[in-house]
Design goal:
- The structure is a single chain.
- The chain is built from nine helices and twelve strands.
- By secondary structure, it is of the alpha+beta class.
- It has a single domain, classed as Glutamine Phosphoribosylpyrophosphate, subunit 1, domain 1 (4-Layer Sandwich).
- The strands form two sheets. An eight-stranded mixed beta sheet has the order 4-3-2-6-5-1-11-12. A four-stranded antiparallel beta sheet has the order 7-8-9-10.
- It binds glycine (GLY).
């Protein structure tokens, strides 16, 4: 099988000045993952490298570019799932680590658990010697200003961020190697002005992500509460199992979320045959796809 990668940079109404930064961010992360996949044929290393790159890029709401919660702090969620053995590692509401995806993978490989949250997750990260980042270095100016504006409002409707030109990223990647081994990964700073301790879909298996070599790998983005209610990743997986092609499975799952909970967001996936699919119901979702040595496309979801 020819190795394949699909990645996204969040589903929302991205304003024009941010189109180019999103496209170049997706392109460089895709190229980094492609190089690693071609050199190692290791889909875990490829997913980690892609997501770490996106977390380090302040354009995206993950790692360095994360939104601030109601307390003016950053709490991040991330997850990785390996489709050969169904192993999962995830962290939620973790603070001050540079790359939450790295800690999620350590949960997968070094513990008997799937998901660590809050202080427990940060404590584990410290034990494992991962890179930490001071709160003041996490808080990029864009998000500090956004926080000040939101904090001055009487009522903040978080769901509306996914419908309007307000920000709501999240990043995700799905990779299949030459042996048909599939890995999916996600990372996010969640939603702007969320309550402290709020956890979205991103670190929840079956909601924000799923990977099974016998079926497909999926990563989701969008309004986490809606994605959680319909178990969006699992919904797409079930549609693949029923024999739908990847694009149809992805769009069917997004349509289902819209009809059941008025949810907004998107999905990327690769099925066991190496076919990619994606769908979203927001104005944009930056997507990049690579097959072997070729970059198939990088666009804003409408190409
Ligand atoms: N999809 C990201 C979140 O709602 O946290």
């Amino acid at each position: 099988m020819v190795p394949k990668i699909i990645i996204h940079g969040g589903a929302w109404d991205i304003p024009k000045p941010l189109h180019q930064p999103h496209l170049s961010g997706i392109k460089s992360a895709l190229k980094i993952g492609q190089k690693i996949l071609l050199n190692t044929d290791d889909p875990v290393q490829a997913v980690l490298a892609i997501i770490k790159n996106l977390e380090d890029n302040p354009v995206f709401d993950a790692g360095k570019g994360s939104f601030l919660n109601k307390m003016g702090e950053v709490e991040m969620d991330a997850a990785i799932m390996v489709g050969s053995d169904l192993s999962v590692g995830a962290v939620a509401a973790i603070q001050n680590v540079q790359n939450p995806i790295e800690v999620a993978n350590l949960v997968r490989t070094k513990t008997e658990h799937l998901l660590l949250v809050g202080k427990g997750a940060s404590g584990f990260a410290k034990e494992q010697g991962v890179a930490f980042i001071k709160t003041e270095d996490m808080l990029i100016g864009r998000e500090k200003n956004r926080f000040k504006k939101l904090a001055g409002q009487d009522k903040v409707n978080i769901k509306s961020f996914f419908e309007t030109k307000k920000p709501s990223d999240t990043v995700g990647a799905v990779v299949i190697n030459s042996r048909g081994e599939i890995v999916a990964g996600t990372s996010t700073g969640g939603t702007p002005y969320k309550m402290a301790g709020r956890v979205g879909d991103c670190p929840i298996v079956g909601a924000g992500f799923f990977a099974d070599d016998l079926i497909a790998g999926v990563a989701c983005t969008g309004w986490g509460e809606g994605i959680l209610k319909v178990q969006l990743a699992r919904e797409a997986i079930d549609r693949i199992k029923l024999g739908n092609a990847p694009h149809k499975a992805a769009s069917g799952a997004v349509d289902y979320m819209r009809s059941r909970v008025a949810g907004d967001g998107g999905i990327i996936l690769i099925d066991k045959k190496g076919e990619v699919g994606f769908a979203f119901n927001t104005p944009f979702m930056p997507v990049g796809v690579a097959t072997g040595e070729k970059i198939d496309f990088v666009h804003l979801g409408i190409g």
